Amino acid sequence: MGAEVGATTSLFPFSSQHIPYLEATHRGPIAKAAAAIASAPTAQNLLAADPEAKYDEIITIDLSTLEPHINGPFTPDLSTPLSRFSSVVEENNWPKTFGAGLIGSCTNSSYQDMTRAEDLVKQASAAGLTPKASFFITPGSEQIRATLDRDNTLSTFSSAGGTILANACGPCIGQWKRTDGVTKGEPNAIFTSYNRNFRGRNDGNPATMNFLASPELVTALTYAGSTTFNPLTDTIPTPSGTPFRFAPPKGSDLPTAGFAEGKPELLPTPGVPDPSVEVKIDPASTRLARLDPFPPFPKSELSGLRVLVKVKGQCTTDTISAAGPWLKYKGHLPNIAENTLISAINAATDEVGAAYDVDGSRAGIPELAKQWRDAGREWLVVAEHNYGEGSAREHAALQPRYLGGRVVLAKSFARIHETNLKKQGVVPLTFARESDYELIDACDEVRTVGLLDVLRSGGKGEVALVVTKRDGSQIGIKARHTLSEDQCGFVLAGSALNLLAMRGKEAR
Predict the structure, then answer these.
(1) Which residues, in sequence order, are bridge partners of residue 70?
(2) Residue 77 sits in the same domain as residue 26
(3) pLDDT digits (tens, 9 = 90+) for 370-382
(4) DSSP per-residue codes, 474-486
(5) Does 196 score more than 90 pLDDT?
(6) Are residues 224 and 370 in the same domain?
(7) Which of 129, 152, 188, 353 has minimal CB crowding within 10 Å?
(8) Which domain holds residue 334?
(9) What integer pLDDT is reported at residue 4 of this predicted model?
(10) Among the three residues 217, 238, 259, which one is the final residue of a domain in this structure?
(11) Cα–chain-centroid distance for residue 428?
């Protein structure tokens, strides 16, 4: 998750623990080479910390003082120690019961994770307990699924009442069916071992509070069905009346019989392109459509841009491009663009997904965007901090570009999304003075100053905006950009794909 907090690169030191894993996953030569480098003198050891390096900040973590934490709801940034969580539930009037516990997906679904959860299930089953909340298990890959199946871990889960889901993203992005009867809009809680829990992400219900925890903690909590249960100190009554307390879980780092391969047809293919193959798309398809090139940047400054919506608060990639059922349209940009910013909060009215035209008529944000695009009016979005945090969802940049978006002006950006916008030809700008956010409103018209020079010079120079208010008055707003030389090429060409296509033609 380093990239999501602004890090360009996250490095982990090599240790002897890497060797068994690399060998078990058919990468023995890499393990041998890494071990040789790690044992080399400091000057040649690229896998050790540089003793001469200077750091802006050093954080020391005392592992002996750590305790399990639970994060959420509605953000992975809100972290509470397990020992305090029950009191925090009371203080915030959060639900005291929860409907589902979900482990796996792409996060925390290693063999060790799953076997530690399995150990807890075996403990509870031996005591005669069954899960109080619905229990879902999603293997993180075909290799893990096949190995857990061979080693009877999956049968342990299913025998205890768990539901084994496909090894896919699944509930993490809203692709599952709840079985606990919760209706949309009803406040409720779920526990997952995923890494994101933004509002509405996991089941399309903005009132669902998703709390994040380790697979072991989620599993133990699922047997209690209570958000105030602490498996380190609390007990669960058994059918015999004897109180049951979980022992610390034990798991296996690696499968003793090695990893199973799984179904070969589900494994990656070489993917060698064959230009002779004709791509045929059913014109009536609602799930697949050809992607037409976006228009290049004009040979002048952007002018006549209109503020589509000024959003406030958290605006994640889930806010910009909702997941769940919408993902069936990932191959059909016109259809999936219908969800653009549908859960964004209008800063002027506090409404969700609402925008207003210059005549005061109300519309959904994507509907108004299409109206303006079809009338030849390009637009921009104004936002607050960390715009686009969350998953690296390319559609959160594709959709606004398709609907006529040219600029996003925010107090700050999540780094991955900022880069994705540039790749689609959308210019991300930040306020030089964050207080200027208050000066600009929906339907204001905007003209860029200096942007064309910045693009033509490979990122050199400054950008300003001239904002024309509804009453005809004008104000100037200074903006900042992070456009590199390559990214300027993307924007000028209309998108990174456009630029690559142009270079391909030149090479031929």
Answers:
(1) 80
(2) no
(3) 999 999 999 999 9
(4) EEEEEEE----HH
(5) no
(6) no
(7) 152
(8) 305-507
(9) 56
(10) 238
(11) 19
